[in-house]
Description:
single chain, alpha+beta, Rieske Iron-sulfur Protein, 6-stranded antiparallel beta sheet, 4-stranded antiparallel beta sheet, 1 helix
Amino acid sequence: xxxxVSTTLSDASAESLSRRSFLTYLLGLAGALGAAGxxxxxxxxxxxxxxxxxxxKVRVAAASALxxxxxxxxxxxxxxxAVLILLEDSTPKAFYxxxxxxxxxxxxxxxxxxxxxxxxxxxxxxxxxxxxxxxxSPLVELKVVVEGDDLFVEGTVG
Length: 158
Ligand code: FES
């Protein structure tokens, strides 16, 4: 027959142990959640989610309406000004108009056959490369898609 006093002590000890285990579990869970709450933003910063941007395909002009190194077609693409011209060999080229120096808008000059930036006299060749002036890099080129006589732009090159 069991001793009632020792049984009570044994039950209290088991209950205390169970309560202690439960509290330890809760503290561990709170610590894990707290650590996750701290680590998640750090991990998100270190490994940003890469979003696949959809590059809209926009019709700009009919190739037959343009002449090589002639008039340019200025248009908006993704909320920025852009231009499309035909090179001397009739290859279509499109660029954002923002100068790569400080972002002024360049102008196509058909007489000089170049893009001119009025802010600091930067000059770009018809293929977008820097000819002279302070711009550090070529104009940002847009991908031109030719479908029959229609010229579309769809995202940037590279
Ligand atoms: S902003 Fe175009 S040359 Fe300076």
